UniProtKB/TrEMBL annotation, chain A:
It holds the Pfam family Sigma70_r2. Keywords: Sigma factor, Transcription, Transcription regulation. This is Sigma-70 family RNA polymerase sigma factor. Gene3D superfamilies: 1.10.1740.10, Winged helix-like DNA-binding domain superfamily/Winged helix DNA-binding domain (1.10.10.10). SUPFAM superfamilies: Sigma2 domain of RNA polymerase sigma factors, Sigma3 and sigma4 domains of RNA polymerase sigma factors. Residues 32-101 form the RNA polymerase sigma-70 region domain. One of its GO terms (biological process) is DNA-templated transcription initiation. It comes from the Bacteria. Residues 133-185 form the RNA polymerase sigma factor 70 region 4 type domain. The keyword Transcription applies. GO terms for molecular function: DNA binding; sigma factor activity. PANTHER family: RNA POLYMERASE ECF-TYPE SIGMA FACTO, RNA POLYMERASE SIGMA FACTOR SIGZ. Belongs to the sigma-70 factor family. ECF subfamily.
From TrEMBL, chain B:
Residues 109-203 form the ChrR-like cupin domain. This is Cupin domain-containing protein. SUPFAM superfamilies: RmlC-like cupins. Pfam families: Cupin_7. It comes from the Bacteria. It comes from Marinomonas transparens. The lineage of its organism: Bacteria, Pseudomonadati, Pseudomonadota, Gammaproteobacteria, Oceanospirillales.
Length: 191, 230
C-alpha cells in the first residue's frame, strides 16, 4: 500500500471500489452512488438540458458498469474520477446512439479501450499523478475564453464546429483556442 | 514511429466523446499503433475528468432513483470476468496472417478474408463495413502491391487509416497505423508500395447527394453488397 502522504480526497472511494471488486459490497456501491450519480446526471443535463429521464437512465447505467467492472479498475493507471468520467462519456454516447434519429450500428464499446492498461509500467503511477497535477495547475491559469470552449466540448458534447456556431465565432478561432489551451496544459506537443 | 496522426482537435473530440462514431473508429484503430497519441488521449481524459468533477450539480433528491437502481441491480445476471470477446481475439491471432485491430472486430470476427470483397478493378477491391443513409460510409480497401488506387476527389472529408502495407501520394509515404485526413478540396493519386498489398480503413463523409464519379459509378453495386441487406 502506498504511504498516506499521497492521500487524495477520493481515497475512500477507491477503497469502496476494492470492496466491490473483492466482496461485492453493496454499501460501498451506495457510497459511490451518492458521490457520482449527481455528477453523472449533471454531465448528461449539460448536453441535453431538461432530459431528466435520459440523465436518470445513464446514471443508472454508469453505476451498473461500476458494479460490473470494478475488478478492471487499476488505481495506478487512472484516477477514479478519470475512470468514471470515461464510463459516463461512453454511456452517454451509447444512449444517444440508440435513441437519436441518426442511429448508428457502430458499437462504441469497441472504440474506447484502455489499451495502455495492459502494459504494466512501474513508472505509470508517478507519471499519471504528474499529468494530473500539471493539468490541474494549467487549468487554474487558463483564460476564461479557452476554458469555455473546452467546457462546451467536454460537458456539452459539442464538436468544434458546433461550439463555433453557438459562440458565434469562426471555426479557426475555436481551433486556435483549443490548441493554445492544450499547449498550456502540456497535453499537446508539436510534432 | 508513425508520421501521420490525427489533429489535436480531433483527439480532443474523441476523448470528449463528441466525435462521430465513424471517425472515432479510425482514431481507435490508430491508437492501437500509436503510443504517443494514446498518451495524449489519456491526458485529454484527465482533463475531461476535471470538467466532469466540477460540473455544477443541482440539488435533487435521489432516493427514488436509488431504489429503482438497486431493484435493477438485483435483476442483473452475474458477471463473467473474462469476456468471450477477448478470448476469441487471442485465438484469431494464432493462425491469421494479419491481426485485425480490436476496434474493427465488431465487423470482422476472424480475418479480412471473411468479408464480401467487391473487385472494382484487377488490382482494387473494396468491402463495405458500415453504411448509413445520408451518413458516413465505412469501408476497407485492398490494393495489390505496386498498383494505383483509383484517382478520386471527395464531396466530404475522407479519413484513411493504413491497416497493412503502405502507399504514397504527392505528399508522402503512409505506413501501417498512419492516419490521413483529407478534405473535400483534395485530389490525390495514391500508389501502393511494391513490396506488399495495402489494406486501408476508409471513412467517407458521404453527403446525401453523390457527385463524385467514383461514388456515383459504384454506389448501386455498393448498396447491393451492403452488409445488412439479406
Amino acid at each position: 500500500m502506498e504511504r498516506a502522504t499521497q492521500t487524495q480526497p477520493n481515497d475512500h472511494l477507491v477503497e469502496d471500489m476494492l470492496a466491490i471488486a473483492q466482496r461485492r459490497d453493496q454499501l460501498a456501491l451506495t457510497r459511490l452512488f451518492d458521490h457520482y450519480v449527481p455528477k453523472v446526471r449533471a454531465f448528461c443535463l449539460a448536453a441535453q438540458p431538461g432530459s431528466n429521464i435520459m440523465a436518470d437512465d445513464i446514471a443508472q447505467e454508469v453505476m451498473i458498469r461500476i458494479w460490473n467492472k470494478a475488478h478492471t479498475y487499476k488505481p495506478e493507471a487512472a484516477s477514479l474520477n478519470t475512470w468514471v468520467f470515461t464510463l459516463a462519456r461512453n454511456a452517454r454516447i451509447d444512449y444517444l446512439r440508440k435513441n437519436s434519429r441518426h442511429q448508428s450500428s457502430i458499437d462504441p464499446e469497441y472504440l474506447w479501450r484502455n489499451v495502455v492498461d495492459e502494459n504494466a509500467d512501474p513508472f505509470k503511477d508517478a507519471q499519471q499523478k504528474r499529468d494530473q497535477e500539471r493539468i490541474q495547475q494549467g487549468l487554474d491559469k487558463l483564460p476564461p475564453d479557452q476554458k469555455q470552449v473546452l467546457s462546451k466540448v467536454y460537458l456539452e458534447g459539442k464538436t468544434h464546429k458546433e461550439a463555433a456556431a453557438e459562440l458565434s465565432l469562426p471555426l479557426g478561432t475555436i481551433k486556435s483556442r483549443v490548441r493554445l489551451a492544450m499547449h498550456k496544459l502540456t497535453i499537446y506537443i508539436k510534432r | 514511429m508513425l508520421n501521420h496522426h490525427p489533429s489535436i482537435e480531433m483527439l480532443t473530440d474523441y476523448a470528449a466523446g463528441s466525435l462521430a462514431l465513424s471517425h472515432s473508429l479510425c482514431i481507435a484503430a490508430h491508437l492501437e499503433h500509436c503510443p504517443e497519441c494514446q498518451q495524449q488521449v489519456q491526458k485529454l481524459e484527465i482533463l475531461g475528468a476535471h470538467f466532469f468533477d466540477q460540473v455544477p450539480q443541482e440539488s435533487s433528491r435521489l432516493d427514488k432513483l436509488k431504489d429503482t437502481f438497486f431493484e435493477r441491480l438485483e435483476k442483473q445476471p452475474t458477471i463473467q470476468k473474462n469476456t468471450p470477446l477477448a478470448d476469441h481475439a487471442e485465438n484469431s491471432t494464432l493462425w491469421d496472417k494479419y491481426k485485425v485491430p480490436y476496434s474493427l472486430r465488431q465487423f470482422i470476427t476472424k480475418s479480412y478474408d471473411e468479408l464480401t470483397w467487391m473487385r472494382l478493378s484487377p488490382s482494387f477491391k473494396i468491402a463495405i463495413l458500415h453504411n448509413e443513409e445520408g451518413g458516413p460510409q465505412v469501408s476497407l480497401t485492398r490494393v495489390k502491391a505496386g498498383a494505383h488506387m483509383p484517382t478520386h476527389t471527395h464531396t466530404g472529408d475522407e479519413i484513411t487509416l493504413v491497416l497493412e502495407g503502405a502507399f504514397s501520394d504527392e505528399q508522402g509515404v503512409y505506413r501501417r497505423g498512419d492516419f490521413i485526413n483529407r478534405d473535400a478540396s483534395h485530389k490525390h493519386k495514391p500508389i501502393v508500395t511494391k513490396d506488399a498489398e495495402c489494406i486501408c480503413l476508409t471513412v467517407l463523409d458521404a453527403p446525401i447527394e453523390f457527385t463524385g464519379w467514383f461514388a456515383r459509378l459504384f454506389n448501386p453495386i455498393l448498396r447491393r453488397y451492403h452488409p445488412h441487406s439479406p
